[in-house]
Batch of 2 targets.
Target 1
Amino acid sequence: MRQGVFVGLNEEKWKEFEMKLQDITSLSADELSFMYVHLTEDLAYAKGKYPDSQLALYLNELTVKVHHIIYRNKPEKASRFISFWKSEVPRELNHAYPYLGYSFLIFITGALIGVLSAANDTTFVRLILSDAYVDQTLKNIQEGNPMAIYGSMEEGPMFLYITINNIRVALLAFAMGVFFSIGTGYVLFANGVMIGAFHYLFYQEGFFDETILTIWIHGTLEITAIIIAGAAGLIMGNGILFPGTYPRLYSFQRAAKRGLKIVLSLVPFFIVAGMIESFITRHTEWPLPVKILIILVSVFICLIYLVILPKKHQNYANATTL
């Protein structure tokens, strides 16, 4: 049977199952058993006929969800938060690897263009960062404190402002994916250009090393999170552009839900990055080993989030695939 025919015969049934699973408290044991039997049969057929398809992945996710509901041994409210971080986020990140690569490439391309443009046009940095920012930075450099801008505001208000702004940028990068991924690409590219121009400004003034060590104390988490949010936006845009065998609206809703889970998981990143930028980055007098240690710890956190947890979840999924 062709995949399209198989989907057409069963799509309404799967949608009905999904709707029922939104309110599991209303499901009886017989209903769950009925759903589980039908889904395992459909999954077995899909794995045999279309083993590498999105359909097989979708049916496996739905079947595992019913399986977990049947065999759960903790109250839903308590286990939901745990399962979000233990299973849902790692699973979505594991599936998002290609989009993470695209997001990184767009961002780094913007950064390189920012550097090259600033190197060939003396007015470019001012165009990107504004005259006021550049003038203040040059003044700080002349006064012997090039990173003084990070101490220009009290820690508390600065933390709130930076954290809220970074979350806003991440949500924008995600939401712009609705414009067929082009909007997300623009946000990533524009932020990359800004980073490239910023670094070149300090390189031009002879403070590149100090810039790297200061900016990336908080930037490691902050920039990584923005790139991940961009990947979430690309996932949503891809759901619109390439629905496969699903109706376009359903594909969009499913992709948006997947992307939103990833974006929500980034909130702790922005809180920690905001705290570091507000309370730590301003201390440019701290010794070099301390700065390097903070950056390395941030890199380790990113590795746990992006590599270790998804890999661990994938190994578990491979061992328990139904």
Target 2
Amino acid sequence: MISRFAPSTTGEAHPGTLLSALLVWLDARARGGRVLLRLEDLDVTRTKPTFATQLVDACAWLGLDWDEVIVQSARTPAHEAALDQLAAAGRLYPCACSRADRAASGRRAPDGGWAYDNTCRGRPLVGDWRGEAEPLRLRLDDDRVDLVDDGGLDLSQTPARDMGDPIVRRRDGVIAYQLAVVVDDAAAQITDIIRGKDIAPSTATQVLIQRALGLPTPRYRHHFLLLESAGEKLAKLHGSIPFSALRAHHTGPALCGILAHAAHLIDAPRDVTPAELVPTFDWRRVPTSDRVARFSAGAGLVVD
């Protein structure tokens, strides 16, 4: 069993980041498996090395260790090889559609964005994909994916219709998340993927990318989220309850206890280390409903 925690390095870690890291780590350690940290830093317009360093430090401060640390931007040759394979199979095509074009369809995708109607599917890729100035999309098979994750969440979709063919290389040349995550999971021999349920709508698309590349499909589980008081999920880009504030107010064991209590792994918040939670870790205790996280200078982090 090999799992991974794969945060983007687009901002300071927040309670939701650390909750996910803790659950991924506990699942692997309780099952005697390996767990990797993958720093997803491909989006050069938003990532910063300081955020990557801080994520590593935040996890160590919380009490988490990793069997390997992978920096995603170092894996560019593997991502490009996958694009070569897809191009050779005739699956890549340039797309001229804008967000406004997608919105004009008026059709929402399962992730809340605008579904893409595969408008440019008929456009050929002329020459090497490296010379294409427009975004590149992957022509998915029109198959339905029937899949239920280990927590009972139904992930079934017909991705080519429900989401539309995914972008695999952006206009600025950045390899897109959907392709990179599939390639990197396979290279690391990931068998189990634990992540927040905000990513769940992408799973069926990733399964079809795995099939297009001849790669295995891991097991999936999607856990509950920590939300802002307005109901939006905590986000690094928004600066939601940043790690610098958490660290200034709590010790690592104290924050671990707050997160463990939020996940129903202990009966009340108290100082605890991740290692102390391993013997009794059980997914049946972890709630499925999202919870609201609040922070104040007086009380620190409180999860309702």
